[in-house]
Amino acid sequence: MLRIASLILDNEIKDSFRISRLDHSIYNEGSLISVTYNRIFIIQEGKGSVIIDDKEFEINSKEVLLISKGQIFSFSPLTTLSGFEISFGDCFWEKAPASASNCKLLLFNDAALHQKISLQEKDFIELDPICKILLIEYLSDDYPNKLDAMAAYLKILMIKLANLAPSYNEGIDDFDNQIYRKFLELVSTEYHQMHDVLYYAEKLLMTPRKLSDISKKKSGKGAKEIIAGQIIAESKRLLQFSAKTIKEIAYELSFSTPEQFSHFFKKYTNTSPLDYRKIFVNIGR
């Protein structure tokens, strides 16, 4: 259950984009931050831990943390990070070339699938100069199309990260890996309408059991869990950031009735949609 008293809103940022260099930055606050912007922490050196949506992750050197809009996170006291922190909103991402859209969907539609990505030394060597160039652009004086230039660099970074995500960077030509990637791409674009594993299995020309086995092997989660994760993540975003009624959200996500949606949401979050929304109304969102 969320500690409402310690829940604070993300600070608003100019142009919906920010990048900062972390140099042994120490996080002493234990407050929970409700995320308005998608966040990427590229960690060169780090120690401590972070809690994201009630799940705790140990922080190590040479890794990436992904936190998506609508998630809630908090660093443990005295957590120390060196590297880069990047925050971007949906309106900024729209400036990025459309060819990178799938990468953003795969990484951030349900960030819980790829919350933490371990890096090899060679991976960090590839990512570090991209981040440095992006930081230089961000700190430079404004000029025409500056935001477009930064969005282009963000696109490159996102493509690199998508290919480093667990199960993506090994055996790219492996049959199971190809199926898993296609499954995630399908779910990312069709979960609003299609909730059944059978639908995706038929699209991929296999049985639901086979699809679930591949999904479990690649992510530790069955196909049904992955679909549900996408729906829950989007439900949380709609409850936090939209003025739509619970009934409207239920129908937008293709539930037969608001009651069916409420039962589904409570099953996976242990709270009702109404009570979840009240948390954010109480802190002024």
Portion of residues in helices? 40-55%
Q: Extract low-pLDDT stretches.
A: none
- CA-atom Rg in angstroms: 19 Å
Largest sheet: 9 strands, mixed
Structural class label: alpha+beta
Q: Give me the CATH fold name of the largest domain.
A: Jelly Rolls
The CATH C-level name of the largest domain is Mainly Beta
Which sequence of SSEs, written as H and E, runs from N to C? EEEEEEEEHHEHHHHHHHHH
Query: Which shape, going by the Cα principal axes?
Result: globular
Question: How many DSSP E strands?
Answer: 9
Classified in CATH, the superfamily of the largest domain is Regulatory protein AraC
InterPro entries: Homeodomain-like_sf, HTH_AraC
GO molecular function: DNA-binding transcription factor activity; sequence-specific DNA binding
Domain HTH araC/xylS-type: 181-279
Protein name: AraC-type DNA-binding protein
Q: Mind explaining what this structure looks like?
A:
- It contains eleven helices and nine strands.
- The chain has helices at 90-93, 101-108, 121-139, 146-162, 175-190, 197-203, 208-219, 223-241, 246-252, 258-269, 273-282, and strands spanning 7-9, 17-27, 32-34, 38-52, 55-59, 63-67, 72-75, 79-88, 116-118.
- Helices cover 46% and strands 21% of the residues.
- The chain is of the alpha+beta class and 285 residues long.
